[in-house]
Structure formats: C-alpha cells, structure tokens
Amino acid sequence: MILVKTEAGQQVLKDRSVPLTPRQRSAFIQFDGKRSIDDVLGSGLGIGREEVDQMIALGLLAPLDGQPAAAPAAVVAAPAPAVPAVSSGRSRQQRYKDAYPIATQLTGSLGLMGFRLNLQVEGTTSYEDLLALAPKIRAAVGPEKAAALDKALND
Q: DSSP characters for the chain?
C-alpha cells in the first residue's frame, strides 16, 4: 500500500505539533505517494510497522486515493470504546477526576515523544476533553497500557 501525508500531516511536518523521533520524521518524509510502506520500512531507517500504524492512527498518513484503506493492526485490535448508556453511576466530573492522573502518567511516561500529548492532557478541563484525547493516548501507549484509562473514562 502507498501512503501519503494528510493535510494534518503536512501541518505537523511544518510546525512539529506532534513529536516524532528523528527516525519517524525521516520515514514520514518518505511517504510521498510514490513509495510503498514496504519500501519505507526497508529503507534502513530502523522504523517498524507499529510506528507507521501510529502515524496512520494519528491521522498523519492515509492511503493514496483509489486504494482500499487497510486499517492498522493496532487500531483494529483496540477500537475506541463508546461511552456506555448505563454506567457505574459516577458523574462525568468524577470520571474526569479518576482518569486525569492516569492520562498524565501515561503520556508523561512517553518522554519527549509524548511531551505535546502530555501538554494536551494537562490542558483538558472536562470529561469530554479527556475523552476526545483518549484515542491519541491509546495509539501512543498501546491498548494494554490504555486499559486503565478506558476503564476510568467509561466504567
């Protein structure tokens, strides 16, 4: 499959609003609509499929027009949970209070790569704000580590 940078990806390339490691950035630049994923992975940059999947999940890369969109493995394995209609009775404010420290711990553990995501978490002021960031956090840390956050937000 051939990937291209999305509009959001083009913006990230300019303003560096999503932190990418030097290897990720070099690979990201190579997704020009001419090279396949296998070409970029085999280019010797030391980037793995998981990192490409993360850039797809963040909306930075998308399939070239006319190609079927193959969902990244990480996204298929961990779909975003819906907010349940029936819950444990906790208010949205209580869910936010419970989930916020988990989210800051998860994004803080990412080091420099997660710095901007950590700032976004720290800038949230409501349950809805944090719920909207949950997919980015899940893509960055993986579904296993994000399970506690999902439980705090949706239980």
A: -EEEE-HHHHHHHHH--S---HHHHHHHHH-EEEEEHHHHHTTSS---HHHHHHHHHTTSEEEPTTS--PPPHHHHHSPPPPPPSS-SS--HHHHHHHHHHHHHHHHHTTGGGGHHHHHHHHT--SHHHHHHHHHHHHHHH-HHHHHHHHHHHH-
